[in-house]
Amino acid sequence: MSTKKYHQDCSPCPLAGALDVIGDHWTLLIIRDLMLMNRHEYKDMLEAWEGISTNILSNRLAKLTDSNLIASIAHPESKRRKLYYLTEEGKSLFPVIAEMTIWGFKRKENDFIPPHLKELLTGSRTKVEKAILKSLKDWEEKHLAVS
Amino acid sequence: MSTKKYHQDCSPCPLAGALDVIGDHWTLLIIRDLMLMNRHEYKDMLEAWEGISTNILSNRLAKLTDSNLIASIAHPESKRRKLYYLTEEGKSLFPVIAEMTIWGFKRKENDFIPPHLKELLTGSRTKVEKAILKSLKDWEEKHLAVS
DNA sequence: CCATCTACTTGCAAAACACAAGTAACTTGT
DNA sequence: ACAAGTTACTTGTGTTTTGCAAGTAGATGG
Hints:
- The structure is a homodimer of 147-residue chains.
- With 147 residues, chain A is mainly alpha-helical.
- The first copy, chain A, has helices at residues 14-22, 27-36, 42-46, 54-66, 88-91, 94-107, 125-143; strands spanning 70-75, 78-86.
- Chain A has a single domain, classed as Arc Repressor Mutant, subunit A (Orthogonal Bundle).
- In chain A, strands 1-2 form a two-stranded antiparallel sheet.
- The longest helix of chain A has 19 residues, at 125-143.
- Chain A starts with 13 loop residues before the first helix and ends with a helix.
- Chain A binds a DNA duplex (30 and 30 nucleotides) through helix 4 and strand 2.
C-alpha cells in the first residue's frame, strides 16, 4: 500500500496546493453544475453533457465534502434523494471558474456559455459574481431550513 | 485500442474544453514555471519542488507545444539544450494561474508565493499582469532573435 | 578518447478511470 | 399490500495514465 502523492506535501506553492483539490478533469465541472447550472442532485450531475461515470461522481462528491467545498442535506420530497450545495469555501472558487471559462471560450468559441457567465465576456466580474452569489443565497433560503 | 475521451467532444461548455488542455495535475505548474519562476529549461522544471517525473514532463511539454501554449528554441550556448517559453496563448492563462494561486493561498496560507504574485493579494491584477507580461517580453527580447 | 551533461525514451508496477452490473433504501402505482 | 420503479450509491473488470528507475542519443569538456 502506498499513499497518493500530493503536491502540497513537498511544495510551498499555493497553486500546487490548489491543484491537489481541484486539479483533475471532473471536480470543477461538478462545482460548475452547483454554481451555475442549478444542478443539485446526483442524477442531475450524471446527466450533464460530459457524462461522468457514477463511481467517479460518487468519489468526487465525497472528496469535495471532505474538503468542505460542498455539503448536502436530505431532499425534502424524498429521503432517498440528496441536495448538494456549495459551502462558502466552494463559492470562493467563482473567480477560478470564471477565468477558466473565459479562457476556454476565447480559445474556441463555442455555441454555449453558462447563462450567468455570458455577461463576463463584456462586463464586470464583480457584478456577475454578485448576481451569482445572490442566486445561490436564494436557493439556500428556499432549500436550507433557516433556524 | 480506444481513444481518450475529451470533454469537448461531447460538451459545448468552454470550461470543459479548457479542462481538456489544462485540467491535470502538472500542466499549470509548467506554465507557472515559465510565467513566474523564470524556469525555461527541462532540467530547471525537473528541479521544481513538486518533483515531476521526466516522462510526464516530456509528455506535457509535447502536448503544450501541440496546443500552441508554449514553444521552444535551441539554447544559444549548447545545441543539446532547449529554451521553452510561453506563446501569447500561453500567456493568456495568467488570470487562471492568478486566481488559482490566490484561492490556494487563502485556503492554506503558505510560506511562499511566486514573487510577482505577492502584490495580487492586496493590489490590482491588471498592474501585476502588466508587470509579468513586461518581464516575459524582456526575456524574449534577450533570448529570441528579433528579425 | 572518455566522462558528463541534457533531453529525452523505455519498461514495469501501481493507481486512476470508464463502463457495466449490481444493491439497498426508499417511493409510486394499483 | 406488493410489484415496479427511482435514487444514490458500490462492486467488478479491463484499459489508460502515472510514478519510478533505468537506459539512450547527441552534444560538450577535459
